[in-house]
Design a protein that fits this description.
Helices cover 30% and strands 27% of the residues. It has helices at 9-12, 61-69, 116-121, 123-126, 130-152, 191-201, 237-258, 260-266, 270-274, 285-294, 307-314, 369-378, 387-391, 407-414; strands at residues 21-34, 37-44, 47-54, 75-84, 92-103, 156-157, 163-164, 176-179, 182-186, 203-211, 224-233, 282-284, 321-324, 337-338, 341-345, 347-352, 357-364, 400-406. Bound molecules: 4-amino-1,4-dioxobutan-2-aminium adenosine-5'-monophosphate and magnesium ion (MG).
């Protein structure tokens, strides 16, 4: 083999190097042979490129025999002349001169038409699929765009703990574990720790795994998901919502800009994402109940919305929507009561369009220590675990607000994924912790 630089498929498909000798490497995506020809397609992180071998053109005869033997997913280095060919994927192919098999793959277990269960068993191999690869690239952009937005708006990225002694989102979905001689939990949310950090850094955010022992098997629930959370000092409900919508629009625009190719493959028009403009519509919980009643769904005050209700509320909307001012009994102990209507709290959920469901949960936080104690006691929580949190209201308590965004849910929406499991390489659900 020569000393030529390895080029990615994407680079070669630009076509600037037509007529030149080029070199690439990757994995065999498709292969078939006929007489003195071997037709292969090589896959790398950037895409696929056709590489055709004609025995008479090969500089090493043995390599032609190796290419005939090499099965799908074998790793290879390929060198040859780049030519235009309208029939090839992307319009170009390599006419191969050298073909070095790095590793001869065993027969690949994943073939066409496999059950979802089988693909989950073989997830460590299925992550090589085009669909999961394109979605993974979109997820990378979502995280990068979010960091970019926070960085431009004066937020510090911080690193809260994952092992914790106090529940943020109630006991029902806690994963408990043995922590030497004590009990500990896997974090459901970094919120309580972010609240502690606003007293020094004022505006903070974190990107961490969060854990929920969700027994529900739906297309929106994971037991381990990536949580993007922010907390802002001196900020109320409306300021908090502005941050959420601006962040969401920024992420949608960046994904449209950076991931045109991926979106196209996944069936999402980048143009649709460029139309995500602020402000997003705002509805109070009470209004949402009325809207649902008009559509024939009678819910009681205090009821949560399930997937069908979320779908109904967003079916006539092009933008994500806010549902604000939820009944306090439906929401967490730390949410501030609305001084103008003590039946409700100063919070919002944000629902994605097209039935992708709740992508943000947010609120202004209660600042009064007495009030927090009352609410924790009413929930039967052990106050001992929360003393540190109550201290935050004892030393310079200020108005503050924050939110949590489900990264996989946002990716599912933007990438038009039918199931949340496609947005995380190794999904954790009620019946799966392997591979
Ligand atoms: O609405 P949640 O439970 O809010 C909190 O945890 C707050 N403490 C966040 C905060 O204010 N810092 O969760 C926030 C978001 C949800 O809107 C949803 O998008 C996502 O996290 N989420 C899940 N995503 C996937 N699987 C699950 N089981 C999820 N549970 C929540
Ligand atoms: Mg929520």
């Amino acid at each position: 083999m020569s000393e030529l630089e390895f080029l990615k498929a994407e680079e070669l498909l630009k076509g600037d190097m037509v007529g030149q000798r080029v070199r690439t490497r990757g994995w065999i995506y498709r292969t078939r042979h006929k007489g003195k020809m071997v037709f292969t397609v090589i896959r790398d992180s950037s895409g696929i490129i056709q590489a055709t071998l004609f025995k008479g053109d090969m500089e090493e005869e043995k390599e032609f025999e190796d290419a005939k033997k090499a099965l799908v997913e074998s790793s290879v280095e390929v060198e040859g002349i780049l030519v235009e060919d309208a029939r090839a994927p992307g319009g170009y192919e390599i006419q191969v001169r050298r073909f070095r098999v790095i590793h001869f793959a065993e027969p690949f277990p994943i073939t066409k038409h496999q059950s979802e269960e089988f693909l989950m068993d073989k997830r460590h191999l299925w992550v090589r699929s085009r669909k999961l690869t394109e979605i993974a690239k979109i997820k990378h952009s979502v995280l990068k765009a979010a960091r970019e937005w926070f960085d431009e708006h004066g937020f510090y990225e911080v690193t809260p703990p994952i092992l914790t002694g106090s529940a943020a989102e109630g006991g029902a979905t806690l994963f408990e574990l043995k922590y030497f001689w004590q009990k500990a939990y896997l974090s459901q949310s970094a919120q309580l720790y972010l609240e502690a950090l606003i007293f020094s850094l004022e505006n903070v955010y974190s990107i961490t795994p969060s854990f929920r022992a969700e027994k529900s098997r739906t297309r929106k629930h994971l037991t381990e998901f990536w949580h993007l959370e922010a907390e802002e000092a001196w900020t109320g409900l409306e300021g908090n919502m502005k941050i959420q919508e601006e962040l969401t629009a920024h992420i949608a625009h960046r994904v449209a800009e950076w991931n045109g190719k991926q979106l196209e493959f996944l069936g999402r028009e980048p143009r649709e994402l460029l139309k995500i403009e602020t402000p997003f519509p705002r509805y109070r919980y009470g209004e949402a109940l009325e809207k649902l009643a008009e559509k024939g769904v009678e819910l009681e005050w205090g009821d949560d919305f399930g997937a069908p209700e979320e779908k109904m509320l967003t079916e006539d909307e092009k933008l994500p929507i806010f549902i604000t001012h939820w009944p306090k009994e439906a929401k967490a102990f730390y949410m501030r009561w609305d001084p103008e209507d003590t039946r409700v709290v100063l919070n919002n959920d944000m629902l994605a369009p097209e039935g992708y469901g709740e992508i943000f949960g947010a609120s202004e936080r209660e600042t009064d220590v007495r009030h927090l104690i009352d609410r924790l006691e009413a929930e039967g929580a052990s106050l001992e675990n929360y003393q540190w949190y109550l201290d935050l209201r004892r030393y310079g308590s200020v108005q503050h607000s924050g939110f949590g965004m489900g990264v996989e849910r946002v990716v599912a929406w933007l990438a038009k994924a039918e199931h949340i499991r496609d947005t995380i390489p190794f999904p954790r659900t009620i019946n799966r912790v392997r591979p």
